[in-house]
Amino acid sequence: MSQHLTIVDHPLVQHKLTIMRHTDTPTAVFRQLLREISQLLAYEVTRDLAMTTKRIPTPMAEMDAPTLAGKKLALISILRAGNGLLDGVLELIPSARVGFVGLYRDEETLQPVQYYFKVPEALEDRLVIAVDPMLATGNSSVAAIDLLKKAGASNIRFLCLLAAPEGIARMKEAHPDVPIVTAAVDERLNEVGYIVPGLGDAGDRMFGTK
Ligand code: URA
């Protein structure tokens, strides 16, 4: 993937995102739409996966048919909101290994604090797709990718639903080698690090917490 930022401007993605943003959208609908959008985003983030061919018989003839080259994939959910994206992506790529990075945001400093880290072995051999719906300040995304690189990952992509310009800039500065795929880039962050207009707290909206 050569571009640092890919915005998936597909009509279905944009339509579903608008419903998700709406204040009145209930948890169950939000969750279902996140699952659907994550599959459409997964389609884009895996667009250039390595391919090979294999000889197969069809009922009519033999052919050399395209198939994935089998490069190992790791999906890394940045807890807890990452799990909402993870579920949909896993439905599309069921053989992927899965890891979790637990970071919470200190509400005063806005800095990430690590509380969990469990990832598949041999990250250095894998395409690693880190998922987190909201790229806001970029602090937790940068910290999560720092940890993944420390664990050996060198081929990383970042998949999110919404991004703020500040978060994109921060990621580009810290990890210029990590392409970002998102459904939209919003206007700005507010004074407490939330994306505006955004959709509120993604974790709260998908899990029905406050
Ligand atoms: N995390 C969220 O869930 N929402 C934001 O707007 C920013 C960070």
UniProtKB/TrEMBL annotation:
Enzyme Commission number(s) from the entry: 2.4.2.9
Transmembrane segments: none
Known pathway: Pyrimidine metabolism; UMP biosynthesis via salvage pathway; UMP from uracil: step 1/1
One Pfam family linked to the record: UPRTase
Binding site for uracil: I195, G200, D201, A202
Regulation of its activity: Allosterically activated by GTP.
Catalysis: reaction(s): UMP + diphosphate = 5-phospho-alpha-D-ribose 1-diphosphate + uracil
NCBIfam families named in the record: PRK00129.1 (NF001097), upp (TIGR01091)
Family, similarity comment: Belongs to the UPRTase family.
Function, as annotated: Catalyzes the conversion of uracil and 5-phospho-alpha-D-ribose 1-diphosphate (PRPP) to UMP and diphosphate.
Protein name: Uracil phosphoribosyltransferase
The organism of origin for this protein: Tateyamaria armeniaca
